[in-house]
Amino acid sequence: MKLRTAFALVITALATSNLAAQSKPKATIPPDPGWPRQRTNEQGRLVYFQPQVDAWTNFKELDFRMAFSLTPKGGKEIVGILEVQAQTDVNVDDHSVLLRDFKIKEVKLPGQDAAKTSQIDQTVRSFLPPDHTVMMALDRLVATVEKSQQAPASVPVQNDPPAIFVSSTPAILLNVDGAEAVRADIAGTNLGFFVNSNFPLFFEKESPKDYYLYTGQQWLKSAAVEGPWSPAPKLPADMYKVAKDPKWKAMEKPILSLSAKGKPPTVFYSSKPAEVILFQGPPVYTNITGTQLSFATNTDADLFIYNPTKDYYYLAAGRWFQAANLKGPWTFTTPQLPPDFANIPANSPAARVLVSVPGTDEAKDAVLLAQVPTTAVVDPKAAEQAKVTYSGKPEFKAIPGTSLEYATNTPDKVIKVSGEYYLCLQGVWFTCPYPDGPWLTAKTVPKEIYSIPPSSPVYNVTYVTHTTSPEGSIQSSYTAGYVGTFIAGAAVGAVLASGTGYYYPPYYGYPVGGYPIYHPYPCTYGVGAYYNTYSGAYGVSHGVYGPYGGAAAGAAYNPYTGTYARGATAYGPYGSQSVAQAYNPYTGTYAASHQGSNAYSSWGQSVVSNGNRSAYTQHYSNANGTVATAQGSGGGSMAAASTKYGNTTAAKTSSGNMYATHDGNVYKNTGSGWSSYNNGSWNSVNSSANSRNAQTQSFQNSNANQAATQQRAQTSQQSRQSMESRSSGSSEVDRSAQARSRGEFQSQRFEGASRGGGGGRSFSGGGRRR
User: Fold this and answer.
1) What 8-state DSSP symbol labels residue 734?
2) Contact between residue 196 and residue 209 where contact means Cβ atoms under 8 Å apart
3) What angle (nearest 5°) sits at the alpha carbon of residue 57, between those of residues 56 and 62?
4) Please, what is the average pLDDT of the chain?
């Protein structure tokens, strides 16, 4: 593609750490104003509570229950249950879901006089006509979905441990992609450079044959590439020839503004996948209440000690590794993770790892979310923008275990199937009898493509599908695997893994009279930024550099796990993308914010429209009115709607948080336990969790009027979840309350991250996931 020409050549690593986090967050309004919601019309006021999901068929058709409170004009409150079916349009990127095409299947009125039920039924329905729409946080919905007892299909990812380095002082990882360093001479000089290193690395061809490394802040010098490295007081004279060469424009400023000030970082050299655990000083550990675990507090690495054995546990790319000491050796241990990890309280700073602990509700929610497709309707003219640039003539390589071949000398995903060529570009499939186009939008995709194994560098395209509607429109959709997040380990409880764990050797091309061309593939480890705030030393891992422009790794938000994960930034003299924009090496997608963007974002609305209607906006309009969002006082946004059926706002009610159970009853927490509703009155019921729920309700009431800053909302929900959601209540209403609480917390955390808060410690120390 045109935008990716720079990345198709050779790439550079001069950007600062946390490149993606430097980008300006996009202005978004949280789509969920909180619950319950309130609608008013000439007949009175209806308050309806958060949906409780019974079934979500194909992530499209939603069957759910809602408790409601109806107050007719001049009348008393009536409490009941709505059983509803609606269609859903999901926006994974914004974590929102639109409920539309309402169909009220039944209105249940516990204990109500049969003579009055028909009139009440019609009154309730008047508030929620078929064209009523509801915008809801996806995290809230996912938390309430009953997870299937059948294990989801998982991917046989590789779990071999990377090399793991540890430092208590500023450090960077100097990585060479592959077993051998690929070197190239710089014509007219005594210098050469490493083609496949992640930092600018030069060498002298003749005596003294020293090496020169640019860390992003200073030049270092060493007699061996493995080190040790020390500040370079000066550079070889030929370096100034490099600075004047237009092909090395990106190196001009670093060379001409030489600075050797400051203590140099420790440089760890590796020719295989590696990670760095970076402490700010000597390691400091804190016990986790209610467990036998301690976690490291002066690093952004997810590092724990299991106190009974004193073993170390380290989380990298969604995989757990264990060692008797920090020097290793490390072994993969996710299936044998001590049960205490599941007991980490939700209000602990260490709770961010619960999404990677098999069997936890957080992990189950993330796995379900990873199966929710992102969809788009593709206009055939999208093919006009589909361009593939090869380094020379197209070259193809067989995909083991299949009859397919893939193009090796382009960063684009081109698959050869029985003499036809298929291009998967930013979430859309195209086809052509020739490898270089012109391309046509594919109406279908050969089933053979979905047999590509994880060991192939083009495996992620198996998560992109095309369907054709009866009207002839083409709908494209993808799930989490396309962006590099895979379901793994279903045998012990599925979790999400970042990357397949396979090493994909890069492509090298050697044009006549030019520098070598280098195409790296996405890797699982060692592509995070390394930064030490107290020293100011930083670096970027798995960026690669050269005379043509470049790309470097940075932080990226993973919408499926709610954490920060690995991403990259593309830039250079040939592209229009700035260093502040994120780049996903799996999809070729550029994004304008640290939170990232879906694979369809680069196409433009004229050729790829959102298949989920208004779920990608904060507005939904039809003949009956317009729904929009505005800032509210309750911890997010205040929804407002004006239609011919009445007005909608978020509601505050003295009735508490109500729940509808399958037996047709409505429950609420009164502060001293659960009560059920029957014919106008609330009656106390026994519950094994009454005492706990009384504490929870008291906490909720005492904080009901707090201002909704992100920090206060997060603190409130963490404390509430630690008391409620992590308990052992077993009744249906207890489980519903726990799920609702967890979904609210996850939604608030996502909103905080989308505003740039990240929901945790700052990104550093090896690309830790927030």
Assistant:
1) H
2) no
3) 45
4) 74
Amino acid at position 286, single letter: T
- Model confidence at 493, pLDDT cuts 50, 70, 90, reads confident
DSSP 248-311: GGGGHHHHHT----SPPPEEEEESS-EEEEEBSSS--EEEPTTSSEEEESSBSSEEEEETTTTE
CA-CA distance, 123 to 105, in Å (whole number)?
A: 15
Residue type, 427: G
- What is the pLDDT at residue 363? 92
How many percent of the chain have pLDDT more than 90? Answer: 40
Residue 136 β-bridge partners: 97
Q: Provide the β-strand partners of residue 220.
A: 213, 231
Q: In the structure encoding, which two tokens stand for residue 561, read together?
A: 């796990």
- The whole-number pLDDT of residue 50 equals 95
Residue 509, Cβ neighbours under 10 Å: how many?
A: 18
Concatenate the DSSP letters of all residues of 364-413 into one string.
HHHHHHHTSPEEEEE-GGGGGG-----SSS--EEE-TTSS-EEESSSSSE
Whole-angstrom Cα distance, residue 381 to residue 367?
Answer: 35
Whether the Cβ atoms of residue 724 and residue 700 lie closer than 8 Å to each other: no
Instruction: Give CA–CA dist 339/493, Å, rounded.
Output: 12
Query: What interhelical angle do 710-723 and 690-702 show, nearest 10?
Result: 170
Do 441 and 474 contact (CB within 8 A), yes or no?
Answer: yes
Structure tokens at 756: 């740039």
| Distance, CA of 235 to CA of 507 (rounded, Å) | 31
**What's this model's pTM, rounded to 2 decimal places?**
0.79
CA 74 to CA 444: how far, in whole Å?
59
* Residue scoring higher pLDDT (337 or 392): 337
Dihedral of CA atoms 293, 297, 300, 302 in degrees, nearest 10, equals: 0
What is the average per-residue pLDDT within 734-759?
77
Quickly tell me which residue has 């788009």 as its tokens. 376
**Nearest residue to 656 via CA among 674, 630, 636:** 674
Q: Are 495 and 358 in contact (CB under 8 A)?
A: yes
Distance CA 744, CA 750 (A): 10
Radius of gyration of the chain from its Cα atoms, rounded to whole angstroms: 28
SS (H, E, C) 109-157: CCCCCHHHHHHHHHHHHHHCCCCCCEEEEHHHHHHHCCCCCCCCCCCCC
Cβ neighbours of residue 653 closer than 8 Å, sequence gap 6 or more = 36, 38, 47, 69
In angstroms, rounded to a whole number, what is the distance separating the alpha carbons of residues 439 and 47?
Answer: 52
Rounded Cα distance between 15 and 658, Å, is 51
Q: Which tokens hold the place of 105?
A: 């299947």
Identity (one letter) of the amino acid at 118? Answer: S
Q: Exposure pattern of 595-628 as b/e (b: 16+ CB <10 Å)?
A: bbbbbbbbbeeebbbbbbbbbbbbebeeeebebb
User: Which residues, other chains included, contact 18 with Cβ-Cβ below 8 Å and sequence gap of 6+?
Assistant: 529, 531, 554, 555, 762, 763, 764
Q: What is the DSSP string of 456-483?
A: STTGGGGGEEEEE-TTS-EEEEE-GGGG
Nearest-CA neighbor of 290 among 366, 343, 226, 213?
343
SS3 694: helix
Residue in the block written with tokens 């079916």? 85
The DSSP symbol for 426 reads: T
- What is the rounded distance in angstroms from the CA atom of residue 549 to the CA atom of residue 11? 5
Q: How many helices (H) and strands (E) does the chain have?
A: 10, 51
Of 693 and 708, the one with more pLDDT: 693
